[in-house]
Amino acid sequence: xxxxxxxxxxxxxxxxxxxxxxxxxxxxxxxxxxxxxxxxxxxxxxxxxxxxxxxxxxxxxxxxxxxxxxxxxxxxxxxxxxxxxxxxxxxxxxxxxxxxxxxxxxxxxxxxxxxxxxxxxxxxxxxxxxxxxxxxxxxxxxxxxxxxxxxxxxxxxxxxxxxxxxxxxxxxxxxxxxxxxxxxxxxxxxxxxxxxxxxxxxxxxxxxxxxxxxxxxxxxxxxxxxxxxxxxxxxxxxxxxxxxxxxxxxxxxxxxxxxxxxxxxxxxxxxxxxxxxxxxxxxxxxxxxxxxxxxxxxxxxxxxxxxxxxxxxxxxxxxxxxxxxxxxxxxxxxxxxxxxxxxxxxxxxxxxxxxxxxxx
Length: 360
Prior knowledge:
The strands form 2 sheets. Strands 1-4-5-6-7-8-9-10 form an 8-stranded mixed beta sheet. Helix 3 packs across helix 6, helix 4 crosses helix 5 and helix 5 crosses helix 6. It has 2 domains: about 90 residues, Arc Repressor Mutant, subunit A (Orthogonal Bundle); about 260 residues, 4-Layer Sandwich (Penicillin V Acylase, Chain A), CATH 3.60.60. The mean pLDDT is about 95. It is globular. By secondary structure, the chain is of the alpha+beta class. The chain is built from 12 helices and 14 strands. This is Isopenicillin-N N-acyltransferase-like protein. It holds the Pfam family AAT.
C-alpha cells in the first residue's frame, strides 16, 4: 500500500534512515520535480537548487535541526544536500514566473469538532501529479523532547500532512499568489506544526511572516480531557489569518478566503471558480446535509465526502481534466482521515472510494 519508515533518534539519524530506506521514493521525487521545474519554468535542476539556497539562513534561524535532518536524508540517499533542500522548497520554487507557468498541488480539507460531531476528525484529499503516488512514504517519527509524529509525505520532504501524539493534526491547502520571500518554506512550517505540543505553539511557528509563501494550514487538536478545536490558518509572507469553526465544521480548498490576505496578496488561481470554489461549496453542502438529516458524523462520513465526484473531473475526488492546461492537470494522489478522538488513521492511495481506505 505505502512504504512505512519508523524513524527515531537525532535529526541526523532520522534523516539518514529516511534517505537510506526511502531512496527509491526520493529518486522519484527528484525526477518529478526536475521535470516539472524545467517544463514550466525552463530552469534546470542546478538553478532550482540555487533558488532553494536563498532559504538557508531563515531555516537555520528557525530550526537548525531541520538542516541536520535534510543533511541526513541526503547522506542516506546518496544525493547532495541541495537536492533535498530543493525538494523541501519545491512550493516556493514553483511560485515564480508567469501566471501560466505557476503550478501547485491542490486539495480539499475538512475538519469537524463538537458541536457538529462528538469526535474530532480531520482529513483531506491531496491532489497532485499521479506519478507522485510512487514517491509516497508513511513516516512514524520519534524525537526527543517532541511529540511522536505520523505523517504522509513525498520521498525526501521532511514535513507534510499528519498528526502527532499530542492530538494535533495538520492538513495542507496550496494557495497560488503573487508574492514569496526568502523565509521558511511551507513544508518545513508543516513539520514545525507537527513538532508542537499545543495549538498556540503550532500557530506561533507560522505567524508573523515566517513562511516564505502562502498556504492554508487546517489545524485541529483534541486535548485529553480539555476539549478540541479546528481552524483554517492562512499563512503568508506578511502574516496569518485564523478562521475558526464555531459550528464545529470547517472546509478549505485552494483559494484565499481571508479578506486581510487578499488586501496584501493577489490570488492567481486561474480555476478558482470552476474548481476550488465548487469543491469548497460542495464539501460544505455535504456537511450541512448530514447535520440537517441528524446523521452522526464519523470517519465513514469522511470516506463518503472525500470520494464525492460531483462536478467531475474537478470534484472533491479529483481526476485529471484534459481540457485544462497540462500544468493544472491533477488528480487525487492520496486521501487521509485522522480521528483525533480515537487516535486512528485511514489512508487511501489514489482516487478514493469508501471501500478502499485502509487503517494505518
